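Hey, I'm writing a tutorial for new members on how sequence and structure tokens pair up, and I'd like a real worked example in the thread rather than a made-up one. If someone can provide the structure for the chain below, I'll link this post from the tutorial.
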Amino acid sequence: MDAKLTIKLDKYVIDRAKNYASSHNRSLSRLIESYLQSLVIQDDSNDNEEIQISPFVRSLSTGNNIPADMDYKREYTNYLIEKYK
């Protein structure tokens, strides 16, 4: 069920949005509706689920576990000392 909504926006933004909607064969109303729907769906999914890790990022995993107490600054310093001996 569609309902009417009146909003105030900057004229320049409205004109550019109309041009964008026209170039994508959509009405400005449907464009705004799609955007708002994406925000609502995104917000709902964040409330109900943990963050999803994409398959690409998951593929970058090396399988090595780094100890929580590791001093990475000291390790990197030691690496540089050895590298430039």
